[in-house]
Amino acid sequence: MKKTVVLVVLFILPIVAYLFFASGINNFGKLPVLTENISDITEVDDTYTLQDKITILGFLGSDLENKKGIAFNLNQKIYKRFYEFNDFQFVMVVPNGSESKVEELKSELGNLADVVKWNFAYGEKEQIQRFFEGLKTDLTLDDNLATPYVFIIDKDKNLRGRTNDIDEGTKYGFKATSVADLNNKMEDDVKIILAEYRLALKKNNAERKNQ
């Protein structure tokens, strides 16, 4: 018995501790809400809504030719892994007049994946700027109304992120020009929020059966 206890202390507990810390604290709870009840994208373009959707929100701006790298990174690292989940969508905000550039980009993305949930919302400069400011982040849009960062919005239109990120402290968005940020952080956080809703759905279904 003594030998068993010693073996557990020396070998098993360190492994368990390592797995706990290596997985990251975000994997053991809900993804924090950073901004509650942001404006709906309908205030920019009423073709789409954020309500009751899990949304990856981005601002590609007017210089789409130089934002293709961002789109391809997101497509390969995030979109292709999760787009088949119910109520999951991408919404990329671009200025009015970008329609032909968007169609070209969607055509190129379509060679790599089904782009059915790649949505593009069009708006005027003032609308886009006001909508972005409503996220209440520490980030800004450039002169082309673009940012390399993308954001996770939940079904209640809350901005989700990290409050204790090892690199940034409060992390509002994920840098789509960084494959490491998408692979090591954003993918995990999207998994967490999807798991939240799956668990909530199972709980609701169980409660209905017990009624």
Could you characterize what this model shows?
With 211 residues, the chain is an alpha+beta fold. The protein has a single domain, classed as Glutaredoxin (3-Layer(aba) Sandwich), CATH 3.40.30. Helix content is 43%, strand content 20%. It contains 5 helices and 9 strands; from the N terminus they run αββαβαβαβββββα. The chain has helices spanning 2-23, 68-82, 99-110, 125-133, 179-210, and strands at 33-35, 54-60, 88-95, 118-123, 146-153, 159-160, 162-165, 169-171, 174-175. The strands form 2 sheets. Strands 1, 2, 3, 4, 5, 6 and 9 form a 7-stranded mixed β-sheet that branches. A two-stranded antiparallel ribbon has the order 7-8. β2 (54-60), α2 (68-82) and β3 form a beta-alpha-beta unit.
Short description:
The chain has 211 residues and is an alpha+beta fold. The protein contains 5 helices and 9 strands.
> Largest sheet, if any?
7 strands, mixed
CATH architecture: 3-Layer(aba) Sandwich
Number of domains: 1
CATH top level is Alpha Beta
Terminus-to-terminus distance: 48 Å
Shape: globular
Protein name: Redoxin domain-containing protein
Organism: Maribacter luteus
